[in-house]
Amino acid sequence: MRVLVIGAGLVGTAAAATLRDRGHHVTGTTTTPAKVDGLSTLFDEVVVLRGADREAVHAHVSEADAVVVTAGPSAARAMTPEDRAATYHEILVATAESVTSAPGSPHLVALSSLSVYGDASDHLDAVTEDSPVTTSSDPSPSRFLAMEATYLDAAGDRATVFRCGDIFGADDPPIETKVAMAHQYLGGSVPFGADALFYRLSVDDAADAIVHAVENRTVGLFNLTHPELPPRNGEIFDVIGASQGLPGLTYRGEIAAPSAPISVARLADTGFVARRSYVAHPLLEQV
Fold first, then answer.
1. What is the C-alpha separation between 108 and 88, in angstroms, rounded?
2. Rounded alpha-carbon distances, angstroms, from residue 255 to 134, 137, 138, 235, 275
3. Which of 45, 166, 214, 232 is at 20 to 30 A from 258, Cα to Cα?
């Protein structure tokens, strides 16, 4: 199978490694020409393109049996509404429009975010894929929802959309470092809420879910995170901060996320469960 991976970051390269091990031919993309040589050892081919460049995207999508879109906004450029507005439409929506308007009928797999629920489903016992989504105008959930609609409306019978927890692993800094960085670079103020449950997704589970979807042509909308109930943002971040001698964070609540448990039953019914994404933090075990 010929697989095009748009976005050769942590998840894209991890998925490519497994797909190549399974005998698939994988082409990766980057927006940075200087990265081509380094990525050439990880993919069968590497091309330079932007997701918003329809002509370039069309040329490569038309040759693929499956297209995996793992390109996502940088966390460093998502700390303010202004930053999010400047980047989210191009990276999420414009890429989806380029992919779905391409000739051919490849299977499409795209990564979205659990933030699309916001706090709209907090009154429920569990948040399923059919639960209400946020009506927030913030560029993060609104652009993720627009991206989802583009894939599902244009290619619903051949599209998989994963609503992912916070992705970690590989070169991504650990939680302790992120808490310290929030104080060092953001003045201790973060855009999310304290009460949201801290659902995470390991790079390895994200990659395995993509491979599962590609090889089984799993179609539809799925929550993708661990089945275990995690701590809340304020609970874990402030305990970690206190262990480093740091004051509690200020939670601005601009990007709401669910405080009700996330159901992953729909994806489990297809035969996949994220088994490597939940690790109880030792500091919370001591509380």
1. 20
2. 10, 10, 7, 17, 27
3. 214
pLDDT digits over 40-55, tens only?
A: 999 999 999 999 999 9
Q: What does the block give as tokens for 7?
A: 């976005």
Structure tokens at 132: 């209400």
DSSP annotation of 92 reads: I
Contact in structure between 108 and 61 (CB atoms under 8 Å): no
pLDDT tens profile 205-222: 999 999 999 999 999 999
What is the crossing angle of helices 81-88 and 139-155, to 10°? 20
Provide the CB-side half-sphere exposure for 48 (13 A, CA).
8
Dump pLDDT digits (tens) for 72-118.
776 555 556 677 777 888 899 999 999 999 999 999 999 999 999 99
- Strand order, beta sheet including 66-69: 45-48, 25-30, 2-6, 66-69, 107-113, 159-164, 220-224
d(CA 8, CA 63): 18
Closest CA to 221 of 148, 132, 131, 118: 148
Place of tokens 């993309």: 29
> To 10 degrees, the CA torsion angle through 29, 35, 36, 38?
-120
The four Cα atoms 121, 108, 150, 49 give a dihedral, to 10 degrees, of 120
Whether the predicted model's global pTM rises above the 0.85 cut = yes
Q: What is the CA radius of gyration of the chain?
A: 19
Q: Which helix (H) or strand (E) holds 208?
A: helix 203-216
